[in-house]
Write a structure and sequence with these properties.
The chain has 5 helices and 4 strands, in the order αββαβαβαα. With 207 residues, the protein is α+β, with helices and mostly antiparallel strands. The chain folds into 2 domains: 71 residues; 94 residues, no CATH class. It has a 4-stranded mixed beta sheet. The longest helix is centred in the N-terminal third of the chain and has 87 residues.
Length: 207
């Protein structure tokens, strides 16, 4: 009887050891799975955070783009209204002051009024049709130079009055010291050859 109890005790001890080892292995496997799951969760959290940051940047860019589009639409509507207004308004005619050869400098806009009653040159054909204010475009380095050139060409004793002198409002005009880069440039030799020969002034007067 005592021997049987001893065998039973020994068997229970062996089962306990085996069971303990088994559950320890299961616990270690669970902890390993837990660690792997935790690493995956951390990686997923980082990816979600990065995606959230990118989404916030894209949302900000989208909002800025919508603002720019709205502003561009407003500017376009204003430009269309201004275009319609200028189409319906009076035509502003500009006269070119420098006709022969361009010079380096800045473009100026001179408003000149001609009063025929004060002019001894009122019988000239070029002055008979002069009504109101003419706007001339000329090139000069400084405002003083531009004023002197205008007053030399249109003297006050001839019935001319310089009403205003300001930088030219026309866009796209440029005079560069390099002729190829200038808006107004001297024609090339080939262009000069293709132009018809100008008749002398004396011949045209005799004709």
């Amino acid at each position: 009887m005592t021997g049987m109890m001893l065998y039973l005790s020994l068997g229970l001890m062996v089962l306990s050891v085996i069971s303990n080892r088994y559950w320890r292995r299961q616990l270690a496997a669970m902890r390993s799975n837990q660690d792997r799951i935790k690493v995956k969760v951390d990686d997923a959290t980082k990816e979600v955070a990065e995606i959230a940051t990118v989404y916030a940047q894209l949302a900000h860019q989208h909002a800025e783009s919508e603002k720019r589009v709205a502003k561009a639409e407003q500017e376009m509507q204003a430009a269309l209204l201004e275009l319609d207004k200028r189409r319906d308004g009076p035509v502003v005619r500009y006269y070119v002051f420098d006709r022969i050869e361009p010079r380096a400098g800045r473009f100026w806009e001179a408003a000149v009024r001609h009063t025929p009653a004060d002019s001894p040159l009122q019988d000239r054909p070029s002055h008979r049709s002069w009504t109101g204010i003419r706007r001339y475009v000329l090139i000069a380095d400084t405002e003083r130079e531009a004023r002197e050139r205008v007053e030399a060409r249109f003297p006050r004793k001839g019935g001319f009055h310089l009403m205003d002198l300001a930088p030219c409002r026309l866009n796209g005009l440029a005079v560069n010291r390099i002729p190829e880069f200038s808006t107004f440039r001297k024609p090339a030799a080939a262009e000069e050859e293709t132009k018809p020969a100008r008749r002398p002034a004396s011949a045209s007067a005799r004709g």
